[in-house]
């Protein structure tokens, strides 16, 4: 197997999975992440799927996903807060933060470059090149676009304009220290996967580990997600931060204007069962992400390939975004291990494109009542 120079645009979990696996096979890999501060603290809860367990085993951090909180059952609440339905289906929820930190430690700091904003990519028969906002470039035998929802490498791969399609609703989110939940809400919600659904809206929540992987009661966090419709004309306002700057996809904790955060809490008190209303009210820094769809017509071209959300944006209801990226990374590694580069990328696309298409369709079905 020929050893390759690989440049990865995007340093979240998908990019890290690919980088570590390819590094294990002897390739020279460098990851370029646009954030200057790193990605710790940006995630919430994660429901790990089979592919996540497998990729963690392959990179040697399988214990990371075992740091989680088990929901003993699933409950659906009615408007008054009573349990309308209960299913005894235990399920473990992991902490994205803890998982990311464990995976990140598997890649040398010298191969992970922060504050490097990629603007695009080009290629020739001899090499592919990443182009950065500061005017610098990075040549490689293979460039991977693992740059997520806002991928700037899609067009270089597909040869087409590649905008995301807004789905018509957003996810308001909170990650509350469970000690901050009122006693009545904690008694009902903790150690359960809870839902409340009305036409056009749904809130769900579950317990996750604390920021340092703490799993003992009192040190964990409660992760809630509230899906609500937002008209396309209103989306810019929803995604404008406290300084009035509009963001394309989401607002991080601390960016939401105080008046809008208080309005969210007021809406919770007016519209949600008491326990969920209390969870929303307990979040001091709620954040929001708009829900989008995207399916790449191609995942590879020449020396360029897409991975994870850069190729297929799937709705969060699937709980399969990280699993899909993990599957992409493992498939890419396997194909590069048995075929020359060009043939390997073609085989990678044939294998993974149908998977991305199927998961995206599944997400649209799950979210059909919301947007």
Automatic annotation (TrEMBL):
Protein name from the UniProt record: 2-polyprenyl-6-methoxyphenol hydroxylase
Annotated GO MF terms: FAD binding
Domain 2,6-dihydroxypyridine 3-monooxygenase substrate binding: 166-293
Superkingdom assignment: Bacteria
Pfam families associated with the record: FAD_binding-like, FAD_binding_3
Domain (FAD-binding) ranges: 4-157, 296-359
